[in-house]
Amino acid sequence: MKYDIIVIGSGPGGYIAAIRASQLGKKVAIIEKYSTLGGTCLNVGCIPSKALLDSSHHFYDAVHHFEEHGISVEKPSFDFTKMVARKASVVETTTGGIKYLMDKNNIDVFEGLGSFEDATHVKIAKNDGSSEVIEGTDIIIATGSKPSNLPFINIDKERVITSTEALKLKEVPKHLLVIGGGVIGLELGSVYKRLGADVTVIEYMDKIVPGMDADVSKELQKVFKKQGIKFATSHKVNSVERNGDTIVVKATDKKDREIEFSGDYCLVSVGRKAYTEGLGLEKVGVEVNERGQVTINDHLQTNVKNIYAIGDVVKGAMLAHKAEEEGVVVAEYLAGEKPHINYNLIPGIVYTWPEAAAVGKTEEELKEAKIDYKAGKFSMRALGRSRASGDLDGFVKVLADKKTDEILGVHMVGARVADLIMEAAVAMEYRASAEDLARICHGHPTYSEAVKEAAKAAWDGKPLNA
């Protein structure tokens, strides 16, 4: 059983790498320890969370917004069991689609835990206790990540939970405590807030989504507060204790006072860490850094020349689309092509409502790098499309080089900005100026007009509709 390429892990990075390598004429095998393909993203991450976000959003609209559109319904209710079942169905269809793609592209799929025997041989330990060894000229590590934890927290997976358990609860919490104000915590907090839970987000930093532009963080927090989510920023969690069905979180605020929070569920959402457990990296001498991530060069190649690594298991943003791009890059590189990836242009997205999205540099990063820039900002509230739909919150901000007018960063909060951000990414890929974007005719009425207006505000300071 000899292959040109063996991929360990079938998440977005792994399965895309396998498909691209097969398209380029390679004989490919993929190893997955679980019974379904797709990794964290498709099974317990991106896809199921978006299914619940969409379902809960429909319910929230029925309760809060139908009336203003002239739609009268009896008091809306929801069947949480059915909602979760729909989520499971979406996941099943999506993961089944990956199996179809493996068959279509003649990729051999092995179920079991893959580990290195040496640099070219991988042992597959199967669930029935048997094992087999396959050989690969090149091997791609795509084993992803798992939720991080704080050392003093006991995650019992019942009341003190990670995102995995939060996606398959049997009931809506009465009061959900969320430790961590990042993307995952905000998305899952939004799901349960819409369904009637009290939600309190406890964040160590002084703002939520701390990696995003400060204006985005400020706008999101303002909107979420309006929706009823409570926030305790600049709070350091010291303990999490369970007493029956009650969870007590104790934290210290910025004035060094101990604050106590009480709820019936606690979601621990403090990031994710690279997953390399059981891989046997030590057998082949593959190096990892101080954070447990596999060390790679610019070609995503480890210190062992025929072993590569992609996605959450290496440095950089832990995003499915980043992993996909890296999978394509490695497959094409191994086929003798010369691919590239621009890490500055990988968009970051928060799928709450309103959504938030960003690409390129934040204002804080430009200031720190001492780059002279100009900023143009346009409110979604000023758009005819926003007024028609009732989605008035948010803005688009364009940051451009002060001398050359080249766009350096774009940051958005609003309806459908998860899709809208790609206009900015395309523009920046081709090094467009703010004037270039401002001079493109945008359809009216659309949300995308906010991009044109913000670009014009950055270019000449004179948006047309503000």
From TrEMBL:
It holds the Pfam family Pyr_redox_dim. It comes from the Bacteria. Its EC number is 1.8.1.4. Binds 1 FAD per subunit. One of its GO terms (biological process) is 2-oxoglutarate metabolic process. SUPFAM superfamilies: FAD/NAD(P)-binding domain (SSF51905), FAD/NAD-linked reductases, dimerisation (C-terminal) domain (SSF55424). NAD(+) binds at G180, G181, G182, V183, I184, G185, L186, E187, E203, G271. Gene3D superfamilies: 3.30.390.30, FAD/NAD(P)-binding domain. GO terms for cellular component: cytoplasm. It catalyses: N(6)-[(R)-dihydrolipoyl]-L-lysyl-[protein] + NAD(+) = N(6)-[(R)-lipoyl]-L-lysyl-[protein] + NADH + H(+). Keywords: Disulfide bond, FAD, Flavoprotein, NAD, Nucleotide-binding, Oxidoreductase, Redox-active center. PROSITE patterns: PYRIDINE_REDOX_1. GO terms for molecular function: dihydrolipoyl dehydrogenase (NADH) activity; flavin adenine dinucleotide binding. FAD binds at K50, G114, T143, G144, S145, D312, M318, L319, A320, H321. Residues 3-327 form the FAD/NAD(P)-binding domain. Its cofactor is FAD. Disulfide bonds join C41-C46. The active site is at H444. NCBIfam families: lipoamide_DH. The active site is a redox-active disulfide bond. Belongs to the class-I pyridine nucleotide-disulfide oxidoreductase family. This is Dihydrolipoyl dehydrogenase. It comes from Polaribacter vadi. The lineage of its organism: Bacteria, Pseudomonadati, Bacteroidota, Flavobacteriia, Flavobacteriales.
